[in-house]
Amino acid sequence: MNESVRFERCQQIQLGVLTESQVGLDMPTNGGPESELPQGTGNILCTHDGVLLKKANAEHMTEMNTSGSLSLVEYNLPRRRLYLEWQPNDSIMIADDSQDQGDWALVDRISGRTRTTSECNAFNTKPIDVGSNGNAGNARNRIMRTLLDDLAAVEVRHRGQTLRFLRKSDNGLHCEFFFQHGNADLFVRSMRQQHFIESSESSRSGGGGEEYAILNTENQKLKKTFAELDIGEIKASTLPRESWLPNKLVGFLGTIPDYVQPSAFQRSPKSRPSTLIQGDRQTSPDNYQFIKLSGSTNSACSSNSQSRGESADKSPADSELENLNAQDEKIVNNLPARQSVYRSLPLSETLWLEFQMPDGRILECERIKELIFRGGIVPSLRAEVWKYLLNYYQWSDTQLERIERRKQKSMEYYKMKAQWLAMTQAQESNFSGYRDRKCQIEKDVKRTDRTQQFFAGEDNPNLALLQGILMTYVMYNFDLGYVQGMSDLLAPILEIQVNEVDAFWCFVGFMDMVFTNFDIDQAGMKTQFAQLRRLLEVANAPLFNYMCNHDSDNMYFCFRWLLVWYKREFDNDDVLKLWECLWTRLPCANFHLLVSVAILDQETSVIIERQYEFTDILKHINELTGTIDLKRTLETAEAIYLQLKASEALPNDIRHIIGEPLLPPAAGEAPADGEDEETAYSDDGFDELRAEMTPEEKRRNQALLEEAFERSMFMNHI
Amino acid sequence: MAKTYDYLFKLLLIGDSGVGKTCILFRFSEDAFNTTFISTIGIDFKIRTIELDNKKIKLQIWDTAGQERFRTITTAYYRGAMGIMLVYDITQEKSFENIKNWIRNIEENAAADVEKMLLGNKCELNDKRQVSKERGEQLAIEYGIKFMETSAKASINVEEAFLTLASDIKAKTEKRMVLYKVFLFNQCLLLQEANNPPKGGHQLKLTEIRTKDSWLSRCSLL
Fold this sequence. Notes:
heterodimer, A: about 725 residues, alpha+beta, nine-stranded antiparallel β-sheet, about 10% strand, elongated, B: about 220 residues, alpha/beta, six-stranded mixed β-sheet, 6 strands, about 20% strand, GTPase activator activity (chain A)
């Protein structure tokens, strides 16, 4: 029976009858010794998974260092009470959303990380019905539940990963939690937004952490009321904008003393970009705090008002259009004008010789790379120079060292080749991993670049070379093995190198650059989609917005481009030119993503004017094969790169993608301990998609701000 | 823009790498065969409009990469598919054995009532045959789906296979449309009843209508 109860509830959720917060805990109705405890259904106000219990009362000894979920739960029976609850993981049911996940999962590069990546409510994670069966009843005993009113304060420590709750009675430590995934920012923010806590005065002087006072029930109500008046917003927003509001009112609002504002306005605790996730971005009135956060630097506000001012000068039709594209305009305005970039001549033999020392060392390799990036390499030099670009030869090696190195590498290659050549029938039949890889290679070698002279015709001996190198690569890196697309990457290299050993080591160098493209879970590809999406958002807002509005912003249609570095999009000669340019890793390692942005740049008008939907875009992109102008594409890509680089207000996540030094956090929000920005960025797959406040978010927040403004105005008039 | 077709069916070709999915599609859409084919990377689709019982049916046929590594991508495309061609190579035992994995994949990712069909391709290579026709038939019976042996190279049964799949989907769709109309009619009645409850009769609750809603959402995958 209990089973059916739960089933029904799940169904209701799917039908959208119950909102998530209404799903709560069914407490046993018998009073007994626990009559102090709340009864009935609790509303979960905020929750976070992957929280380790670090310190608590001795009765919870067995749960120490166990991962669980921390929640704030509201019970209305016998009377309204708020409880802080923590329960270990094994009593948590993860709602099965695998079928409903419309798209791919978000990038998750942290190995071993489970599905409990929940930032408040983001992943449908819900506690099970406690008490609905024997096991859960058991789990109920393991829940640590504390009345919020019994607690005095919350401290945030260790870069936001530790939450400490202090008792009211003696101000001693009541319990301590460690947030395994990400940090406690969201949880704290959620509590702040719902006015359960406010940042306390003492934290400003506190030692390296935030401190919040826990508000009692009466205080909570008061703060909420003030918050709903949005006074802080009214004040913040009127000042920088041209006044369309009666002067008197502005004056009046300006005189509202700060003390009526919730203190959350006065001081925004350290905000990490990653904390901006879906949960916060839903259109709830609580969002005003973010407006404040972005507005506090004044940059978002002023740039927006500037663009408004400009559009006001134009004809009504124009300005309407521009209002629709307000964001595009803003972004375009933010990026400096695109400069013309021209490709130069390829690295010639005479020039190459000039860089060589008598002993064979190559001077100024950075200069050479730059020349190659600008113009490529003359065909006759490719075989030699590629060996350097692909990290097979070292620039600093002398002629003798190079010969020695080649000998070494040759021996190493044949040793690995001998391994698979020696594989007996019996071994092979007992080794499915090897067999599968071999079988896939055989299938693909037959259909790789067969239209190229080098691989054409039946029984072409070069096919055996291609196969031999791929098989040897399987022995070199068995875990990666062979994945479709690799033969595409090897074929042009083999064609240039001809020699099996040289081709193999050059291929190894290339694979070192792109191996994440072939990840078993495709994580590398997903990361690149996310990065490309962000680049497009900044560099080509009209197309980005169009794609967002047509469910095409997932960038899936660029899959083939990125997987084999445009091998299928250009003719062989252009592929060689493109690859040697990309192998220089100039001007940044992600330049291949900018090539995508550049191609899309050229297709922008076609896609938008013809009103392409996702399938049309995919078809169009797939059919671009053979029609893309490489020279123009590379020039555009570099021009876009220079545009981004020259932009002053470039968000840090974009800087990260294009390899620019990150900006320090905004003044006043500097982390107390000089933490490494890099790790803060890479510890959470979310960052890739959610880092910083995107212009879109800024715009939405601006809209919310205006809405709150008007609402407050309305209230004032009443 | 005027609609040039009565129905749009989204079909999917799946099966192990190298069984000839792209060739089958090429044969059906262009009526041609090319021996220097290349492996499919990512996903692509082709369009062909056919006519069945005086209805124009636009077939949008999606071609996927076969290697297991890419399933995380290809499964994203399963969702909207109304028909799936499961392809194996009669000269490759392994590709036949893997059909059950592909079926499982469909069950996990596609709509439950997606129309399926099994194709044993490369039937022109009888001398290299590893999978008998009977085994193919048997497997199809097990899964309750239709089966054909095809040859993209020799142009055997490719056209027939797609027409069969399309006509099965069409039949199902049209049956559903009738049901849907009946349902709409019933719902009108129910709503009418809810607004003007008959005297003494039971009051219709909102939840009952909602239950019907879920039924609607299940059957309106048109």
